[in-house]
Write a structure and sequence with these properties.
439 residues, alpha/beta, Rossmann fold, 18 helices, 13 strands, 39% helix, disordered N terminus
């Protein structure tokens, strides 16, 4: 197993989108933060930052009154790990007040100053006095989070890998199949290390899909998370390809798997610190830990089939994720099993319009290909190298990692015309015709 360096293979080709770049921000560790603001605008930005998923482990309180309120408050109270103060004072007055604040600060407390003066001299003077960071108002939510994370991460620390959570809008829609094939494409196309973590401990299929029967895996990692480190993780992983490893589920019913909300946190931390990409195969359940894994991921991919139940469930999922993750890219939608003969379906355009989310990919119904691959423990590209569906999985891999941008038609949605025409012909004739690749 290798540890990430600063040359992230997912981000140095000039194709990384702003959305994917913002998702690379490091999470803030378990610290206490108290902020003292002078203006409602900065207070609002800090409140938004405190609710972001990257700040989930930090305990943050936002007060008003600026640096004077901070000095008064800490006359009789212990100081937290980090104090954030906003001030509109000029340089000499600001420095004098910070000197007063330093007198009531406990050893080890760090200070981040938000000022209203874009002055290099002021910045240098603050750094000389031990201020950890200086930001200029108005502040951006992501800039605040990044500044806090940088304060508590050593310059030499490795980057954290991206986490991609795949979940089905309904059971049986093929979310696991999509997750495994996309992860396989990431490892093959980018030549970068990828780990698939199967979180469906009772019924997971990652071992079957890769024709593996590992004696250890995810159950050992989560039940022994208190002693999990890089060495133990390396023993629990099963290598499937040069750049692809799996953390397989036991898929046994000898015990129940009722986890606490934070059960997978340490496992995810270790995985992120060792590979550029972690693919989470999340089962179709709704528990506190499953919800937390979705909210904590850098990107969420929802797989659905075009029927009413999937439409309702996908809308609930996507709406929740958009609301709970306002500073992240919206979830991506993959429509699977499209074009089943003689089965009524919601049209692709109508499905996307109802969710206000254009599908990232449309995968046609091909039971022979997918069934053959599943029964042989193969990926789609291994079962049929010439299938156009392989290109679809590569496209999804490129889009979610930020290696390329999603293509849109003239009206702002994806252009599915060639695929839909072919699917329509298949439904009318009942013949199995090789589908064209979706644009």
């Amino acid at each position: 197993m290798r540890t990430l360096d600063f040359d992230d293979p997912f981000a140095d080709d000039g194709l990384t989108s702003p959305e994917s770049f913002s998702s690379l921000g490091r999470p803030v560790p378990r610290i206490t933060i108290q902020a003292f603001c002078d203006t409602p605008e900065v207070a609002g930005a800090l409140d938004m930052a405190a609710s972001d998923r990257r700040m989930a482990r930090a305990h943050t309180k936002v007060h008003t009154g600026g640096i004077s309120a901070a000095i008064d408050f800490y006359q009789s109270a212990p100081t937290p790990n980090l104090i954030i103060v906003e001030s509109r004072l000029v340089k000499n007055e600001l420095i004098a007040r910070l000197d007063e604040l330093a007198e009531v600060c406990d050893s080890g407390t760090k200070v981040l100053v938000i000022g209203h003066s874009n002055d290099v001299v002021t910045y240098r003077e603050l750094l000389k006095r031990g201020v950890s960071e200086y930001l200029i108002a108005p502040v951006d939510v992501m800039a605040v989070i990044a500044a806090i994370a940088d304060i508590y991460n050593d310059d030499g620390q490795s980057k954290l890998g991206q986490v991609f959570a795949f979940v089905g809008a309904k059971g049986g829609v093929g979310s696991s199949t999509v997750a495994h094939n996309v992860a396989w494409s990431m490892s093959r196309v980018f030549g970068s290390d990828v780990i698939i973590a199967d979180l469906d401990l009772a019924f997971g299929t990652v071992g079957l899909d890769f024709n593996q029967d590992p004696p250890q895996g995810m159950a050992d990692a989560v039940f022994g998370s208190d002693r999990l480190d890089e060495v133990l993780l390396d023993r629990l992983l099963t290598k499937c390809e040069e750049h692809l490893s799996i953390l397989a589920a036991p898929a046994m019913l000898d015990k129940t798997y009722d986890f606490e909300e934070e059960a997978f946190d340490h496992v995810l931390d270790i995985l992120q610190s060792n590979v550029p990409a972690v693919v989470l195969d999340i089962p179709h359940i709704w528990t506190s830990w499953a919800r937390k894994m979705l909210l904590a991921a850098d990107d969420v991919i929802v797989t659905a089939t075009p029927d009413l139940a999937n439409l309702r469930n996908a809308k609930n999922l996507i709406d929740l994720l958009k609301q709970a993750r306002p500073n992240d890219a919206p979830p991506k939608l993959v429509l699977n099993k499209v074009g089943i003969p003689r089965q009524p379906e919601i049209k692709v355009d109508d499905f996307g319009a109802a969710l206000q989310t254009a599908p990232t990919a449309v995968i046609p119904f091909d039971p022979l290909l997918f069934g053959t691959a599943a029964n042989n423990g193969q990926m789609i590209a291994e079962a049929s190298a010439k299938s156009a569906i392989n290109d679809t999985f590569v496209d999804i891999a490129q889009i979610v990692t930020g290696r390329t941008e999603q293509k849109h038609g003239k009206k702002g949605g994806l252009s599915f015309a060639p695929l839909l025409e072919k699917l329509s012909a298949m439904q009318k004739s009942g013949k199995k015709t090789k589908p064209k690749r979706a644009a």
